[in-house]
Amino acid sequence: MNARRMTAVAAAALFTVGLAACGSDDSGSGSGSGGGDPIKIGIKFDQPGLGLQDGGNYTGFDVDVANYVAKELGRTPEFIQAPSPQRETLIETGQVDLIFATYSITDERKQKVSFAGPYFIAGQDLLVREDSDITGVDGLDGKRLCSVSGSTSAANVQKEVPGVQLREFDTYSECLDGLVNGQLDALTTDNTILAGYAAQEQYKGKLKVVGNTFSEERYGVGLKKGDTALCESVNKALEKMVSDGAWQKAVDDNFGPAGFKVDTETNPPKLDACS
Ligand code: GLU
Asked: What confidence tens digit (pLDDT) does each residue in 1-41 have?
């Protein structure tokens, strides 16, 4: 172990011990229940099963992981909306400390932010109308597709199908009306997100997930570039979440109701080293 790494590990250990002394023992669900100093956490507000805001209530897999990690850090989560195009900026400007928002780890993003994790692996897929004959990315040439700017979903699909007519919004939920009423042919993003929309009462029998993924999306916890001590602390919490069964419970609670089948060959994923 080199000196720099030893310092980071020592700092992380001190940090954890110091915070444990003033930590809390409640459930940490929702916001403001973790005890300790507030920590600003960016999540999605419009992705059922992942990050959903309903009044002062926050639910979803990302929210459960965020609450667990915040509690391990001895901090009280304060949830802030982190739409895809704004995530790097929110971290760089210090408006959020951590992001748990279906945020894929990529080399391009690593130029601006650092990532703990990954804590989940998803794949890019398509959401179409129930009667659609689109069966995969190959059938998208010339079709009207919807996605979100600043996402890997929009970038991947443009690379795969240069002839697609891509419409980009700030959030995925803005694509849904156009898809249902026929102005759009498909919505593309991670299968996790699409399953959450398809399972909503108002879309039952109207929309379906194609089920033919064409990318690997490794969800990381975004944080300030180079904050290795924080990254190590988050990774330690993620490791504990898997080993004590809380990660599996969060998967079952949040993906179960949508009937989303988690790929157990890739999940739970092995953590990357913090750098
Ligand atoms: N996981 C992909 C990304 O980070 C798509 C989902 C999203 O935009 O949050 O870009």
From this structure: 444 444 444 444 444 443 443 333 333 344 545 579 999 99
Rounded Cα distance, 109 and 28, in Å: 29
CA of 158 to the centre of ligand 1 (A): 15
CATH classification (class only), 124-209: alpha beta
Amino acid, single-letter form, for residue 15: F
Q: Which residue has a Cα nearest atom 6 of ligand 1?
A: 102
Q: Among 147, 190, 194, say which to mutate for ligand 1: greatest number of ligand atoms within 8 Å of CB.
A: 190
Q: How is the chain split into domains, by residue range?
A: 12-122+217-256, 124-209
Fold equal for 12-122+217-256 and 124-209: yes
151 lines ligand 1 (CB under 6 A): yes
Fold of 12-122+217-256: D-Maltodextrin-Binding Protein; domain 2 (3.40.190)
Question: Dihedral of CA 209/246/65/49: which sign?
Answer: positive
Average pLDDT along the chain: 90
pLDDT reported for residue 14: 41
C-beta separation of 120 from 60 below 8 A: no
**Unique residue bearing structure tokens 């130029």:** 111
